[in-house]
Amino acid sequence: MSNEHHDRLKATLATRFRTLDRVTLAACGLAIVGGLAVFVFATELFPHHSLNHDEAVYLQQAAMLLEGQLVLRPPVEEAFRPWFFVDGGASLYPKYTPVPAAIFALGLAIGTPRLALAAVAAAIVFLTYVVVSEAFSRRVGLLAAAFVLASPLFLLDTAVFLPYAPTTLLNLVFAAGFLRADRIADRSRSLRYAALAGGAIALSFFARPYTAVLFALPFIVYALWTLRHGSRKRVVTWGSLAVLGALGVVLALAYNAVLTGGPLRFPYAVFASRDGLGFGTRAILGHEVAYTPALALRANARVLATLLSEWIAGGLLGALLATLGLLAVLAQGIRRKAIDPRQATLLGLLLSVTVGNIFFWGNLNILGAIGVAGDGLIGYLGPYYHFDLLVPLGALAAFGVVWLFDRVRSLTSTRLAPPHARATLALVALLLAAGVAGGSLAAGGPHVRANAGVTDRYEEAYAPVENRAFEEALVFVPDPYGPWLNHPFQRLRNDPDYDGEVIYALEERPFEVIDAFPDRTLYRYSYRGQWAPISGSAVTPRLRPIETVAGERVSLRARLGIPDSAERVSIRVSTGEEQSYYAARGTPQTLPLRVVASNGEVRVLGPLRQVGEESLPIGSRGTIAITVFVDQGPGAGFSYDVELPVARENGTIRALSPSVGVCRRPLYCGGSATYVPGATRPGVAVETALQANASHAPKSQLTRPPNLSSRHDRWN
Question: Which of 74, 78, 81, 196 could link 508 by a cystine bridge, Cβ 3.0 to 4.6 Å?
Fold first, then answer.
């Protein structure tokens, strides 16, 4: 070889090396941008978390892991059961496995949980580049990483504490290790990458078994195909990967055995036995569906159409580029008389993930009303069960762009002068970039605005709690979706050891809760209005101190405003199964009532006419419910709803400050009818005073929040 030729070869290799470095640096830059973008979305768009309340499950689980706990042992289970936690008898445990929570715990450990989300995002972008580069080329890999980064599904779902992005991260580590192990001839290095791939898919299986199986399936087919020639190296490589991958099964079964008592009893199945794969009756928490193949196909077709039109980079333009890329891959395969098997493996995810999700009824649930566009969680967080499809779709779209760009360059190089050819190529690149960016904004903008609207509603609802500095407090919270903490109030979570500055509890068995935390200041958080943040309606929240009194006799005085339009006033008093009725004498502007609990019974005093028994018995623990209905003519009226928690022990009666609601129509009754000054009609006002004859009561039972100046609680 001549010196001239040698020098030319060295120069060529050096140029290629510098080019490779620039591509790698560009991929790193995209990863950093992806991490920063997701961090901004997480902190600015989802400061109070999303509509998917599973976030609270994973964050609660992350906090538990940092404390070395797999289960919770609350002092009063009924008052402290978090959303999607299973009743294990002596303890509570989450229905989800701990792998995603462990990833989130890394950010929680340093005091900034959303840094974990940013790290996951950056890793996904970079690994997309690595994986697609292995199957196609570095240029295609870089564009595929940009495609994933610009996809609304990536930006929104990676910005919340849900398992889909972390699982995809593990799957991409598996794919990168697999493809690198397949390409490298050196056995020792090949085994190292195979070990990496095996460990990653093991964790992925532990995190989300079905998702991991669907992702790994094309790679398993490829591995078996490569063994057709009996290569000893490949047998050892794939064998080591399989052995390590099987550890995921072992981990999952061992975890099941520890938590549920049986290796094949998965926590999610214990929580809801019919919340699984396949067709037939599927059900969870009262929601039941006959999931037929026809319904599955209809739902998944809708999900895929939404994915391709609204949730990938460029929207419909991105889908068009992916289609072009698929045609280019097929055309290349026809020319070569075979499609590249590594490319076919990566693109096989389109088939395995799509077909596999047909058997999972969750894709129906995220649609809400299947015939209404944008209804359900898919309108806010997208088709997150298909998150893994972003990578093969990005690879196809990138390959389509490269193919189109190469065709344009080939045409311009033969028909235009070099300056004009370069200008044309730059224009084409600019138009494609602008089209994809504009399509992403157009497709993702409505979903960002929808989530921002929900965040605004959350901001208003959390205001009384967020704006107060608590010190050794116990706050009772409402349960609009049933007897769960963190559903919907995800921000109001307890430390795993229940020793934080503030403890949140449902008002179930309140006296047992108070006895478990005897030295804490008591509050009741409630709200007026319908809890429906997706409708755009806001609730009016209120945080009130709670007073505890105790004595041989407890008396609640109430003064209720009666509007001039009232025609008659009736009262119902209930202590559970027993109830009594009264009628007010006339319609005064203010109706004074006195509810007295003593000697195991309840009496109601005031300007009333008795209908039925004069007194009602009270049990050892319960609630005295007083409903005052103000009749304002046919079809008009409202009610005051006063609930007084009481407990009778050893001749002493304890009571908590009552909760007071004003119910104007059925939609605003129950837990959403909290009385809030200024949120009711003229003439509607409440004043209460709780007191006790406490001559024989233990002093420890007489507590009052330090910021209450008296026992009179004026709410008008």
Answer: 78
